[in-house]
Give the backbone structure.
Amino acid sequence: MKAVVKYAKGKGFVEVRDVPEPQPGPGEVRIRVEYAGICASDLHILNDDIAITIRPPVVMGHEFSGTIDRLGDGVEGWSAGDRVVAEASYEVCGACRYCASGFYNLCGSRKVLGYWHDGAFARYTVVPARRLHRLPAGISFKAGALIEPTACVVHGVCELITIGPHDVVLVTGPGAIGLTALQVAKAAGATVVVSGTADDRARLELAAKLGADATVDVSTGDLAKTVHDLTAGRGVDVVVECAGNDRAVRSALDALRKQGQFLQLGLLGRDMQLAFDAIVYKELKVTGSLSSRDVSWRRAIELVERGDVRPEVLVSGEYPLDDWEEAFRMHAGRKGLKILFKPE
Ligand SMILES: [Zn+2]
Ligand SMILES: [Zn+2]
């Protein structure tokens, strides 16, 4: 079968290859992939600048939806034909303090689909049955491919910080993650401001359509003034930083009220300078968020099923595997939002 393979460490070394169809081992299922999404981290795998361990040659892709096609020995509760999505945490130790407390997303032995184990940029992929989640009939395969990034947002926004109906939330960076964070915060009843740059004009318009109470293009608009007006000078209660750049982090820290919560979802990929004392003077709570876990997936599926989060509106292109370079270029050039492969 055709697959997009990272075949060696270093910058580049990705190509479409003909690889053997995978077979499910004990406790595993084989899934016929319907759609697989390109994630920002796939570009980091291409460029080999991500801290998550890869094991080339490996089939890339960790965000996908599909149908169970074969069951390995000992799999119960699942049948061929079931519509499913699956967590990317393919392998964890099961014994460390993080695994024991359900935070296996932080397990030091975690091996990820599409990084270490062959992933979903292919006709078939194999995952452990315990990482499966049923895709309800009301959720399309296209939307299903975006449950993974939705679950990552849910983990941060719903599990690591608290957002209530009286909160004003600033989401910086209106990419697929930011626009999902917007929808999750709106579902919690919050007032939400979304900020972006001149390149983000279309994305900010989409943010407004998805329920943002205010949007600010920081190249022409005044974020501080918008926040001042919305909060009677108090500052926002919560920041969800999805832009992953210095300027957004600094302006978000400035916009935050005393005792506010700061959630870092975006990766900067480099060091930055920061007036770190602001955290002391304002008694801020600062947290990061990595990947997702079982409960995040359950909640993400509920949010999508209820229509509180609409992942389909973020899909801006669909490509065959053969056109992976063009698809990656579209993503890297920030043309559109979420790009999907439809494996042939
Ligand atoms: Zn991802
Ligand atoms: Zn562990």
Summary: The chain has a mean pLDDT of 96. The pocket of zinc ion (ligand 1) is lined by residues 39, 41, 62-63, 148-149 (CB under 6 Å).
